[in-house]
# Entry
Amino acid sequence: MDELNKALNDGNELGQDLELNSASDEWQRLSPISILYFTVRSLFLIANNFIYLVPIVAVNFSTFKDQPLLVVFIVLALLMVLALIGFLQFLFYRFRVQGQRVEIKQGVIKKSHIDLPFERIQNVKLEQPLYYRFNNFACVELDTAGSAKQEAKIIALKMDLAQAFRKTVIETNYENKLNEEQGNEGQVESASSAPAVNEVELNRRSMKDLVIHGVSNNRVWIFLGALAPFYASISDALSQLFVSIGFDVEAYFSIQTLAWWEFALHVLSLAMLLMLIIVLFSVVGSILMFYGYTLCKSDDRYIRRSGLLTKQEVSMKQSRIQLMVQQQDWLDILLKRVNLYFEQNKTGSVNQNQPGQHLANKLLVPSVTPQESAELMHDVMPEQALPSQNFAAISKRFILKNAALFALPLAGLIGATLQHKNDWGWLAGLGIFAFFIAIITLRWWRWGYSFDSDFAYIRKGFLGVNYYCFPINKVQQIHFKQNSFMRPYKLATLRVVLASGALSVPYMDEYIVRKQINRVLDVLVSDKRSWM
# Structure
């Protein structure tokens, strides 16, 4: 604590507006720059919920198009309201660091008082948005295992103070752990025995890797779906643009004046151009999020730093990792790349409305090679043996059940509907049924499971494939599930609940499910290691 006290007391020399003192009972205000943070956060909240505003905008799109000044007025009014909300949030925000705890009071209408002991803090995450870099401020997020509705975050601290605070929390928790292990006997190790600050770099992502990640993990189709109500207006605007530059769209795509191969070539070239634009958007998003990506290890803690506009520093304690996931989409398989996730407790105080916060309880290493993935997984859990596993398949009755309940009725309904209009409707229904069967069979083929003495392994997917690896001693709950389709054939579903979420494997042999449940329960009774 002495190092933090010195840094806090020297705050004014560092240019810090706040006068923090861990031995004082006085509540502290944030720096006024936090008003900008609150305002931008509200803007992101509106942007993330834009899908709900699409119908309103679509209905009034022609009005907005004819009256651009109205749009400007609405935007300015919205910014003024958000700025006012940001000022009020700044005005009602107080915090103090006292002893081995941090307290935060916040809220304009709905007020909250968070009293958080250091020992409950799992991670201290540092985030530095672009507008914080000019004055070297940072946002400090305190990751706990509490409710996601309570956001424990110090919005604006000088970077030096934020780093000193993070180091103090880690060292304090380390000393408390030693004290708990040693009891009251003997002398507890001093702070000099705390985790070393020296870091070892485990992985670095180059610009080439980020481009590959953007290409193989394209999610722009979500954005395109949100634009669906505006396609007609966008099409008209593009037509007018082409006319103004002398390009005849109708002649370019006229099936009457073009040979069939010319028409097909024009359509293909347009499709490739659109795909290129979509991929470029995805690549830009990948670079913005993961620029300068480094994964380091300091003692038993993994630290990920990345971000172009908003720099993020996220740490995760090795013992708190519940699950490792190797994720490969179909394009990742072709490019021989893996997205590697380390997942911890899912119930932390996370604001899902902020960009990138869906990864807050996951540490992602994007688009690594299979060899790099295997090395990182070995570093996190040396005893696991995922690469050498032979996965057992689930029962083929998975195919029969889904064919009878979904594929056959749906294909029959479509075929019967088409039969009224065309004598070949039954053939179309048969083709649709074969298509569904192919999908179900591929899904069945991806399912697999394996166990060894300390770990469980699951494989699943469709066009891509995901591999899951978790220690048995970190299982929170385990379930035996059996429906009327499974019971006659002695099949069952194994469902495992971890602190990071739940995993299920359907249509396993009933005997294997019961055997694994008994084995897991035996391990949980005899193994007293903490899952945190």
User: Anything to note?
Assistant: The first strand starts at residue 94 and ends at 98.
